[in-house]
Amino acid sequence: MKVLVNGALGRMGQEVVKKIQSEAGFELAAVVDIHNGVAGGLNVDTDVLHAIKTTKPDVVVDFTKPDVVMDTLRKILPTGVACVVGTTGFSNENLEEVDKLANANKTAVLIAPNFALGAVVMIKLACEAAKYFPNVEIIEKHHDKKLDAPSGTAILTAQKIAEVRKKMHQGHPDEKETMAGCRGADFEGMKIHSLRLPGYVASQEVVFGGQGETLRIATEPINRECYMPGVILACQKIKNYQGLVYGLEKIL
Length: 252
Ligand SMILES: NC(=O)c1ccc[n+]([C@@H]2O[C@H](COP(=O)([O-])OP(=O)(O)OC[C@H]3O[C@@H](n4cnc5c(N)ncnc54)[C@H](O)[C@@H]3O)[C@@H](O)[C@H]2O)c1
Description:
It contains seven helices and 13 strands. The chain is α/β, with parallel strands linked by helices. It folds into two domains: 141 residues, Rossmann fold (3-Layer(aba) Sandwich); 103 residues, Dihydrodipicolinate Reductase, domain 2. Helix 1 links the parallel strand 1 and strand 2. Helix 5 runs parallel beside helix 6. The model has no long low-confidence stretch (mean pLDDT 96). Nicotinamide-adenine-dinucleotide (NAD) binds next to helix 1.
C-alpha cells in the first residue's frame, strides 16, 4: 500500500512517516508539507496535487491544521484517492460536504478525532456509565500547541453520551459565572473543559457525579505511538468503504 503523508514535518506526520516505513506491506510514496524539508529520507513536496500525480498513492494520510484541511480535501478528493484524516476541528457542515465530495468521486474518507484505542474504549464506557450517571463533565488536557478547543475527542464523547443520556440541565438552576467561561463549554447541558499546558500529550477524563460518589473514566496516552495502530488499520480498511466514515470505532 502506497501512502502519501500530508503534514509530514509535523509532530503527528513524523510519527506516521516512521510507522509507514516500518510496517510490512506499506510504502511511503510521498511526503507533503507547506515547508521544504526531508521526512523519512524523501524530499518534501509542497504541492499535494503534484505529489499525488507523480507518485499515485493508494491513501493520503492527513495530519495538518483545522483551518486548511477542508481546502486540502476539496483539492484532492476529485483525484479519487482515499483519505485517512486525523486533523481535528471539522464542523457538521464540513462533514456533510466531505461525505458528498467523497461519494461524488467514488472514494472514501475516514475522519477520526482520535486514533487511539484507549479513547474509543473510553467513549464506549462513558456511554454505558451515562445511562446510570446523567451528571457528567468532560475534562480534556492537551499540549499548548493545539489550535482547536475543545478537542475533537471531547466533542465526539459529548455527542455519543448525548445519544444515551436524557436531556437535562446540570448544576444549580441559578448558577452564574462571575468570570466568563469558568464553567466550560456547554453541550446539551454537559460541560466541557479544555486544559492547555506544556507537558500534556492528549488525555481526557469523563467525570460522572452521583449521590455521594463520583466515577471517572480516563485515558492517558504516553506518546504519539498510541495513534499508529489506528492509522494503519484505517489505511488497510478504507478501500472497503465509500463516502465519509466518521470515527475509528466504525472500522474496529
Ligand atoms: N486524530 C488523532 O488521533 C489526532 C492525534 C493527535 C493530533 N491530532 C490532530 O492532528 C493535527 C496535527 O497535529 P500535530 O500535533 O501534528 O500538528 P503540527 O503543527 O505539529 O503539524 C502540522 C503540520 O502540518 C503542516 N501544514 C500546515 N498547513 C499545511 C498544508 N496546507 N498542507 C500541508 N501541510 C500543512 C505544518 O507545516 C506542520 O508540519 C491537529 O489538528 C491535531 O489536533 C489528531
